[in-house]
Here is the input.
Amino acid sequence: MTETNPALERAEAAVKEASTDTAAVQLAFAAMELAKLAQQQQPAPPPACNHQHKQGRSAGEWIGIACAVCVGGVGIAFASLALAILGGVAAIVVLVLRDMWRDMQKGR
Here is the structure.
């Protein structure tokens, strides 16, 4: 029974090779499945925006805005001067009326 049959040896070698190849193929399939899962779990990139962006203001528009701000600033300055003059005039009127009232009270 210790005789070796070449056909049997070839069959045993084929079985060993097939079992080794099967393990390698199974590992390859497992690696492919892991790669597929990794791709599925990555977040999808945000969609590209489809709306139209507004263009910036032109130089003429900025010059117009600057002029409007300057004119508004000058207007506010004149209004402040007018209020200051009005306050001064009101103070003078109050002082004059107070003196007149005192004079009238003393004359009695």
